[in-house]
Write a structure and sequence with these properties.
By secondary structure, the chain is mainly beta. The protein is 4% helix and 54% strand. The chain has one domain: 7 Propeller (Methylamine Dehydrogenase, Chain H), CATH 2.130.10. It has one helix and 22 strands. The strands form five sheets. The protein has an eight-stranded mixed sheet, with no helix packed on it. Strands 2-3-4-5 form a four-stranded antiparallel sheet, with no helix packed on it. A four-stranded antiparallel sheet has the order 6-7-8-9, with no helix packed on it. Strand 21 and strand 22 form a beta hairpin. The longest helix is centred in the first third of the chain and has 9 residues.
């Protein structure tokens, strides 16, 4: 009984996944990717770094930037999410978020929050906001006010440094900063239901001058999942494969 108990404690309680590359697309090596969304046939990308932070509309197939807005130099851009005809964008330590028009990238509103902004996604009604801790804040999609928080746990232990987020089929996918791992999170109770190992997706000979894996986008109509990284030369469409 004791051996069985130790085995159960040591065994992962969530599903383990790896990946299959379906297709690789060009990605701008100058894009320090912080947020990524797929909407209406285009990618929308939020990038970071002071003086280089931007919001972009990108053609998936070519990586060509079709539309671009540069943030004021004092802001370090972070996660983005498309809610209706608006794009909501966080900043890292500025404690301010921006609301842009989806079509014209014109500023519609600003909002404030306490602490850091990291990743952002939506279920179509609510926004989910990571801040580098083991908590995900839930915001009302219309008022952008916080309604609750989700404590993220894997096998009962907190999962910190959750970065870029994406809503996929009723779950939240989150990059874990400084790793090649994405976790699947239940928005109901914060339980990690799956772990995706993306080690090796960008070959080592292409990693010179790049930064960490970060950026998840989902084409809900086509059931396509896309991932990339900060300053990566490629963006990948992948299928998940259970280990």
């Amino acid at each position: 009984m004791r051996v069985l108990a130790l085995f159960l404690l040591a065994s992962p309680l969530c599903a383990q996944w790896t990946y299959q590359i379906v297709k690789a697309y060009p990605h701008d090596r100058e894009a320090f990717t912080q947020g990524l969304e797929y909407r209406n046939g285009f990618l929308y990308e939020g990038t970071g770094l002071h003086g280089r932070s931007s919001l972009r509309k990108v053609k998936l197939e070519t990586g060509v930037v079709l539309q671009k807005l540069t943030l004021p130099a004092q802001y370090f851009g972070e996660g983005i999410s498309v809610v209706g005809d608006r794009i909501v964008q966080l900043t890292w330590q500025g404690e301010v978020g921006f609301v842009w028009g989806l079509h014209d990238f014109k500023l519609q509103n600003k909002f404030t929050y306490r602490g850091e902004g990291w990743g952002l996604t939506t279920d179509g009604k609510n926004l989910y906001f990571s801040d580098g801790t083991d908590e995900i804040r839930v915001l009302d999609g219309k008022t952008l006010t916080e309604t609750r928080r989700i404590r993220v746990r894997e096998n009962g232990r907190p999962v910190k440094e959750l970065n870029e987020l994406e809503w996929v089929e009723g779950e939240i996918l989150a990059n874990v900063w400084q790793t090649d791992r994405i976790v699947k999170i239940s928005p109901l109770d914060g339980r990690v239901t799956g772990s995706i190992d993306l080690a090796g997706i960008l070959p080592w000979h292409e990693r010179a001058g790049t930064d960490v894996l970060n950026g998840i986008a989902y084409d809900a109509a086509g059931k396509r999942l896309f991932v990339t990284g900060k300053l990566w030369p490629k963006l990948f469409e992948i299928k998940l494969v259970k280990k």
